[in-house]
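U., I forgot to send this yesterday:
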Amino acid sequence: MGRKRRKEAGVRKKRRITSIERKRTMRRMGRKRKVHRKQREGSKRRRGRDGS
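Result:
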């Protein structure tokens, strides 16, 4: 049975992510990957050209 595997070395029970944890990770990841760096640079460059 799959239940017995927990005793083996290196096999950990898959932990369920709590809603709070998911929210925290989503917020962190969203801030990190909201815009790709190339896209952000491109938009900045475009804005600079428009402004000048």
